[in-house]
Amino acid sequence: MTGIFSNPKFGVFVTITHIFVCAILATCVVRSLNASTDKVKDMSKEDKKIFALLLTLLVMSLLKIILSFVLIVGIVKKNHHLMAPWIAATFISMVAVFFYTLVALAFSFVNTLKLRQNAERVLPGMGILITQIGFFYPIFVLYQSVLVFRLKLEGIYEGPQESFNDHDSELVDSNEVY
């Protein structure tokens, strides 16, 4: 199963897909912000909080797009140091979404026991978490392959030799190592 995930071409595909998802999210946020900027002076306190939240979401989406471009450079140049910021940011995001979903589930059961309302509160968080795991796992496997490849190249890898030998040829054949 890790064979396709350790292929750099698949990693670039996953990253480009992630960039498109972030760009679509940023577009939706910009449209929401444009619809509400005409009324900034007349906004209530709650509307200003929502506006600030949307603006924060836009900044986070743009930051994630930049990190994804750095990830693509890391994949192409086979440099695990350039891949690490994306992995760290995505892992932190997954942990935050997990705890948010867990808290939403706990509060939904404390406040009401209606199944429909619980699903409306928890399912979006679970969907986001599953999507993030879908993006994270292939890139993390590729990161491990690139890390082992670089450590072998430098002669300091001391792990099991047979586990990554099949995938090293894909990393060597794909591009030169920088």
TrEMBL record:
The chain crosses the membrane at residues 12-30, 50-75, 87-110, 122-143. It holds the Pfam family DUF7027. It comes from the Eukaryota. The keyword Membrane applies. Coiled coil: none annotated. This is DUF7027 domain-containing protein. The lineage of its organism: Eukaryota, Metazoa, Ecdysozoa, Arthropoda, Hexapoda. Residues 16-98 form the DUF7027 domain. Keywords: Membrane, Transmembrane, Transmembrane helix. It comes from Stomoxys calcitrans (Stable fly).
